[in-house]
Structure prediction request, 87 residues.
Amino acid sequence: MSEIETIKKMLAEGLAMIHNIDNPTTEEHKTMDYINSANAKLRKAGQMVHILTPDLEDMIQFVHEYVPEQYYGIMNHAWSGIGHWQS
Prediction:
């Protein structure tokens, strides 16, 4: 699996978890461990993107290409502090 594919998979998993947090169907979805795990996946993906393309504009372009618009705010907070990204 390419690095881009790995990042896309990690983003998809993290965003699916965020969806579960917003629409919980189990008690696990309401736990801090689950919330922290979702944020950790998104943050790790951001760190990987930053290693590939450290320019802020490139990171923003990556989000625009691979993240549904409804999650831009989530991504803004998850990636805050990575490189020059600030929420």
Summary: The chain has four helices and no strands. The chain has a mean pLDDT of 97. The helical segments are 3-22, 32-52, 56-66, 72-78.
